[in-house]
Amino acid sequence: AQSVTQPDIHITVSEGASLELRCNYSYGATPYLFWYVQSPGQGLQLLLKYFSGDTLVQGIKGFEAEFKRSQSSFNLRKPSVHWSDAAEYFCAVGAQGGSYIPTFGRGTSLIVHP
Amino acid sequence: ETGVTQSPTHLIKTRGQQVTLRCSSQSGHNTVSWYQQALGQGPQFIFQYYREEENGRGNFPPRFSGLQFPNYSSELNVNALELDDSALYLCASSRDSTGHEQYFGPGTRLTVT
Predict the structure, then answer these.
(1) How far apart are the CA of A11 and the nearest CA of chain B, in angstroms?
(2) How far is Cα B44 from Cα A77, in angstroms, rounded to an integer?
């Protein structure tokens, strides 16, 4: 069975600082990997996804993530955080082939100080 | 293009009651998935409907059931509500059953007292 660990429950950064949110997954083969963002009172919005190919994936809002098979990781990064990036971030893993049933991590809450 | 909408936004029910939550898919999407998100947790997959048939189910008891209609809108029904059913219920639609690109609605906040 697949699983996702987001080791940081909360992350606090200053506006303009760089950001890295950690995600580790457990899956027996090459997974599908996703990062979603959830603002208060909103549904989840897809930031980026990895299926295959280039291990550095570019997403929306200036985010990127790197798939590292050897570390079973898919960390999310942004070079300069804006106050509007404060939200809950979820990493998810899905099985390749057939119907996609994702497993989500418990999320990391990003707090941005002015 | 209209996004995914859910109704109601909030509701409060009593333990033992039944509830129906509704979801309208994004235009052109034939697949809908439902998730339960407890406070402080990530979403958990309940089930998926593809062209009006259940197409996958997570680890939820049979009192969680669903329907998908010909216009691809969907309902989630929960019978015999328990306190632990209190959560945000999210609906997500996608163009096909692989669900590689899901679009989420804002959710329905259910409180069971």
Answers:
(1) 15
(2) 25
| Distance to chain A for B17, nearest Cα, Å | 25
Assess contact for B20 and B75: CB atoms under 8 A. yes
Average pLDDT score, chain B: 92
Please tell me if residue A5 touches chain B, with a CB cutoff of 8 Å: no
pLDDT tens digits along B29-45: 889 999 999 999 999 99
Write B43-48 long-range contacts (CB < 8 A, 24+).
Answer: B43/A44, B43/A90, B43/A104, B43/B90, B44/A104, B45/A101, B45/A102, B45/A103, B46/B76, B48/A99, B48/A101, B48/B97, B48/B99
For an interface test with B, give the residue of A8, A101, A109 to mutate (most B CBs within 10 A): A101
